[in-house]
Amino acid sequence: MRFSTLGEWLRWQEGLHPRVIDLGLERVAAVAKRLGVDRCGAQVITVGGTNGKGSTVAYLDAMLQALGYHPGAYTSPHLQRYNERIRIGGREAADEAIVEAFAAVDQARADISLTYFEFGTLAAFYIFRAAKCDIWLLEVGMGGRLDAVNILSANVAVLTNVELDHTDWLGHDRDSIGREKAPIMRSGRPVILGSVDMPCSVTGYAARLGSDARRLGRDFDFGPGSGAGHWWWRGRGAHLPGLPLPGLAGQHQLTNAAAALAGLEALGEPAARLASAAYRALPGVRLPGRAQWVVGPPDWLLDVAHNAAAAARLAALLHSRPRPGELRCVFGLLRRKDLDGIATPLLAIVDQWYLLDLADADALAATSVADSLRARDARIAALGPAAEVVARVRGESGINDCIVAFGSFRVIAQVMRELGCPG
User: Fold this and answer.
1) What single-letter DSSP state applies at residue 127?
2) Which helix (H) or strand (E) holds 135?
3) For the purposes of burial, counting CB atoms within 10 Å of the CB of 399, is it exposed (0-12), middle (13-18) or buried (19 or more)?
């Protein structure tokens, strides 16, 4: 074995491949075949899209467990521990299991170079097979057509939505991005289209491929219930009234939960079992960094929103919770992101901005973010490393204020560490 600890393996993988992102399936498919995980023998649900993938996987994972399945869930990126990426039956994989899987992947790859993401994807497959997981939940890392998880054919594909993100890699308009995301579909198999506003590249691809496309607003739908704290869901063969709200905050989470229920119906689950799964599992779903409230005073709202559409949903959530004090924002961003598009939904409601200098070569300097926001009349209170900025905003906030942190997974990871939040 090349290394004995998880940290050593991860540090080595970061420099193993000449490119951090190298889209393509040939290398990872070849190693998967050598490793024997190219045909997993389990049912596969692949979840792609721009926003809401992690939440949708969390809902599927919780409901499948409630129904008696033994699912494996693979997601990315992680916030505090690499182990968050690989869960078996709702539990993070242990260091020892990941180290064993890395060693197996390393031996199988021989002279084939793999990216950090590809290495981790194959390790997750190895762990799921060893744990005899009967359903594999696979979140697409980026795109879909050339993403490593797409070497396996999904029994059910879920495409949450298509928005502008990763434009340098996927294209500069929604139609182009849709063409990259749509190929997680398979001919004759169900695909859940979790947005009423899918680009033509997605719906056209499904029609040409002959996929069983199940569209929000046509084949399944949802809405508010007759009483507070409830909602309803309708599918092709089921109508579920009076469902409890999902555990994650925000109206957009009903859309993600609705897509997850449609995915289970497409898998063959009847109405009675769908209702049981929703009642037992949805209220308890938690996912760090997704509209996560940390009760104060002052209260914090942590969200990994890192594109314009996600920022708009975050702003809507903040509008829905009136506050007597000021709204203060801890914010940082990577270079490749759309600063104007991401900041715009928050500009009218944020009173003070606290800007992080992220410890990352790909991050925008806090001074650059400050210059851009000042040009739009934003009030900059502080900028600097996470420890200083979090201490400053805590010291300056009153008990009636609210602090929102967003901009990337890396922002939330650093803020969570400073707040001492559990993972």
Assistant:
1) H
2) strand 135-139
3) exposed
Determine how many CB atoms are found less than 10 A away from the CB of residue 359. Answer: 10
Instruction: Please tell me what DSSP assigns to residue 154.
Output: P
List the one residue out of 74, 59, 67, 264 whose CA is nearest residue 156. Answer: 264
| Contact (CB, 8 A) for 295 and 304 | no
| 8 Cβ contact list (under 8 Å, min separation 6) | none
Share of the chain above pLDDT 70, in %: 97
Q: What is the DSSP string of 192-234?
A: EE--TT--HHHHHHHHHHT-EEEEBTTTBEEEE-SSTTEEEEE
Q: Which fold has domain 292-419?
A: Protein-Tyrosine Phosphatase; Chain A (3.90.190)
Instruction: Determine which of 54-58, 108-112, 164-168, 391-395 has the lowest per-residue pLDDT on average.
Output: 164-168
Contact 295, 403 (CB under 8 A): no
Does the structural domain 6-284 have CATH classification 3.40.1190.10? yes
Question: What are the residue boundaries of the structural domains of the chain, listed by start?
Answer: 6-284, 292-419
In this prediction, residue 341 has a pLDDT band, given cuts at 50, 70 and 90, of: very high
Least confident segment among 91-105, 202-216, 224-238, 262-276 = 224-238
Q: What residue type is 56 in one-letter code?
A: T
Query: Taking Cα atoms as reference points, which of 259, 203, 28, 207 lies closest to residue 126?
Result: 28
Q: Helix (H, G, I), strand (E, B), or coil: what is residue 372? A: helix
- What is the DSSP code string of 30-80? HHHHHHT-SS-SSEEEEEESSSSHHHHHHHHHHHHHHTT--EEEE----SS
